[in-house]
From TrEMBL:
InterPro entries: Amidohydro-rel, Hydantoinase/dihydroPyrase, Metal-dep_hydrolase_composite, Metal_Hydrolase, Metallo-dep_Hydrolases_sf. Keywords: Hydrolase, Metal-binding. This is Dihydropyrimidinase. Its EC number is 3.5.2.2. The keyword Transmembrane does not apply. Pfam families: Amidohydro_1. One of its GO terms (molecular function) is dihydropyrimidinase activity. Its cofactor is Zn(2+). The lineage of its organism: Bacteria, Bacillati, Actinomycetota, Actinomycetes, Kitasatosporales. It comes from the Bacteria. The gene is hydA. Residues 58-444 form the Amidohydrolase-related domain. It comes from Streptomyces hazeniae. Belongs to the metallo-dependent hydrolases superfamily. Hydantoinase/dihydropyrimidinase family.
C-alpha cells in the first residue's frame, strides 16, 4: 500500500467509551487500520503521506448526534440551518455524523417524506448523515411501509404524544406502530408530553393574558411529561417493543425510565445540553428574549439538572443529543410575540454538544470515557451505526477529532457557525476546543480552519438497535 493514502495521528491520548490509550492511530483509505502505543516498534514502522501531531491532544471518535432537525418546517417557518450550514457547524463542534428526522406529513406516504429529506440533504452535507422517520399518520399503508424502510436502513420512527393537529398520534396509533416495531426490529422514539392536556392549558393561559415566553414552560408541566413517559412505557410493554424517549427534561420522567429499566425493560432515554445547562430562568428573560429558549419539552427549573446528570451517570439516560432545531430571533421567534404558542419550538446547539459535555467532565458530572460514551459510542449503538461510527478501532470509519482539552473559549453568536442570529449559550466560558476533524480520513477542520465541502458527507443506512438481543 502506498503511503499517500495513509495518515498517522501521532502522540495523542485516544479516548473511547471503553479505554484511554496513549497510542498512535494509523488510517488507511478512510478507515482506522491500527492503533499502537507511542514509540512502539509497530508505530515507528508506519509511514504515511500525512502525519498529524496530536501531542497534548485527545484523539476522540467523531461525535454522533442522533437528534437534529435541519430545515424542519414548524410553526409556519423552517428551521434556519440547511443541511449544508448545519452539518458544517456540526463539524466545527467535533460531530461527524448526524441522524436527522425525515417527516411524513398527514395524508402522505412515508416514502414521500423520505424522498423530500434526501432532496434537502443529498450532496449538501459536510459530514455523514442518516435518517429517522417522523410518523404523523399511522394507518395500514404506513405500517407496511415501515417494514420496507427498516430493510433500507431507516430503523427508527418517532411518534408524538404532543402537538395535536400536527405530528400528534393517539395511544392506539402509537400502540400499532410499536407493535410493528416489535415485529420488524425498529426502535420507536417517543416525544412524551400529554399534548391534549397541554393544549387546554395553553388556551387557558392565553385567555387569561399570560402570553409571554415563560408561560410556554408553565403550561408544559413536568407532570404531563412524566405521565406521558409512563404511558409510553406501558404501551411499549403491551406491544413487547423497545422504546427510546427523546429529549427528557424532567426529574420525574427520569424516574419513570429508571423504574422501567429496573424491571429490565428495553427502555432508553436521551437528554440534551439545553436541559443540562439552561433553565426556566432563561425562559423568563425579559423583552421577549425568553423566546430564544422555547423548545419542547421545555426548559425546567434548575433543580431538575441534578437528576439528569445522575441519570447519565447511572445509565438511566444513555444518550445526549442536541435536538438542534434553530429559529432566528428576528423574523422567526418573533412570530410568537404576544402569543407564546406561536413561537416556533426549537433551539440551536449542534455545534456545542461535545464542548459542553467536556465542560461537564471538568465540572465533575461525568467521567471522560462517559463523555465519549453518551456522545459517540452509545448513540451509534442505539441506532445501528457501531462500530463504523462512535469509536476508534481497526475497521471503524476514520471519523476522528483532535481535541485540545486546555484551550479556553467563550461561546457566542459572533463566533459560532450555525445559521442562526443568537447563541443560547452567549458568553458561556468553556475549557476545551475542537482543533482538527477528520471524516472518513478527509480533513474537514484543520487546526481551526474549515477545509471540508458540501457533498463530502455520505448518506449512511443503519442497522437496528444494538442494545437488543
Ligand atoms: O422544540 C423542539 N424540540 N423542536 C423540534 C421538534 C421536536 O419535538 O423534537
Ligand atoms: Zn420532540
Ligand atoms: Zn426534535
Ligand atoms: Zn471530501
Amino acid at each position: 500500500m502506498s503511503s499517500s493514502n495513509r495518515t498517522v495521528v501521532r502522540g495523542g491520548l485516544v479516548v473511547t467509551a471503553a479505554d484511554e490509550l496513549h497510542a498512535d492511530v494509523l488510517i488507511e483509505d478512510g478507515r482506522v487500520a491500527a492503533l499502537a502505543a507511542h514509540g512502539s516498534e509497530a508505530a515507528a514502522g508506519w509511514t504515511a503521506g500525512n502525519v498529524i501531531d496530536a501531542t497534548g491532544r485527545y484523539v476522540l471518535p467523531g461525535g454522533v448526534d442522533v437528534h437534529t432537525h435541519m430545515e424542519l418546517p414548524f410553526g409556519g417557518t423552517f428551521a434556519s440551518d440547511t443541511f449544508e450550514t448545519g452539518t458544517r457547524a456540526a463539524a466545527w463542534g467535533g460531530t461527524t455524523t448526524i441522524v436527522d428526522f425525515a417527516v411524513q406529513t398527514q395524508g402522505h406516504a412515508l416514502r414521500e417524506g423520505l424522498d423530500q429529506w434526501h432532496a434537502k440533504a443529498d450532496a449538501k452535507c459536510a459530514i455523514d448523515y442518516a435518517f429517522h422517520m417522523i410518523v404523523s399518520d399511522v394507518n395500514d399503508a404506513t405500517l407496511k411501509e415501515m417494514d420496507l424502510l427498516v430493510e433500507e436502513g431507516i430503523t427508527s420512527f418517532k411518534l408524538f404524544m404532543a402537538y395535536p393537529g400536527v405530528f400528534y398520534s393517539d395511544d392506539g396509533q402509537i400502540l400499532r406502530a410499536m407493535q410493528r416495531g416489535a415485529d420488524n426490529g425498529a426502535l420507536t422514539m417517543i416525544h412524551a408530553e400529554n399534548g391534549i392536556a397541554i393544549d387546554v392549558l395553553v388556551q387557558q393561559a392565553l385567555d387569561a393574558g399570560r402570553t409571554d415566553p415563560r408561560h410556554h414552560g408553565e403550561v408544559r408541566k413536568v407532570l404531563l411529561e412524566a405521565e406521558a413517559t409512563h404511558r409510553a412505557i406501558q404501551l411499549a410493554r403491551v406491544a413487547g417493543a423497545p422504546l427510546y424517549v427523546v429529549h427528557v427534561s424532567a426529574a420525574e420522567a427520569v424516574a419513570e425510565l429508571a423504574a422501567a429499566r429496573d424491571k429490565n425493560l428495553p427502555v432508553f432515554g436521551e437528554t440534551c445540553p439545553q436541559y443540562l445547562f439552561l433553565s426556566t430562568d432563561n425562559l423568563a428573560e425579559p423583552d421577549f428574549e425568553g423566546a430564544k429558549y422555547v423548545c419542547s419539552t421545555p426548559l425546567r427549573p434548575r433543580e431538575h439538572q441534578a437528576a439528569l446528570w445522575r441519570g447519565l451517570r447511572t445509565d438511566d439516560l444513555q444518550v445526549v443529543s442536541t435536538d438542534h432545531c434553530p429559529f432566528c430571533f428576528n423574523g422567526q421567534k418573533e412570530l410568537g410575540r404576544g402569543d407564546f404558542s406561536k413561537i416556533p419550538n426549537g433551539m440551536p446547539g449542534v455545534e456545542h454538544r461535545m464542548d459542553l459535555l467536556h465542560q461537564a467532565v471538568l465540572d465533575g458530572h461525568i467521567s471522560r470515557r462517559r463523555w465519549i460514551d453518551i456522545a459517540c459510542a452509545t448513540p451509534a449503538r442505539m441506532f445501528g451505526l457501531y462500530p463504523k461510527k462512535g469509536t476508534i478501532a481497526p475497521g471503524s470509519d476514520a471519523d476522528i477529532v483532535l481535541y485540545d482539552p486546555t484551550a479556553e473559549q467563550t461561546l457566542s453568536v459572533e463566533t459560532h457557525h450555525m445559521n442562526v442570529d443568537y447563541s443560547a449559550y452567549e458568553g458561556k466560558h468553556v475549557t476545551g476546543r475542537v482543533e482538527t476533524v477528520l471524516s472518513r480520513g478527509h480533513t474537514v477542520i484543520d487546526r481551526r480552519e474549515y477545509t471540508g465541502h458540501a457533498g463530502h458527507g455520505q448518506y449512511t443506512p443503519r442497522g437496528t438497535c444494538q442494545f437488543l438481543a
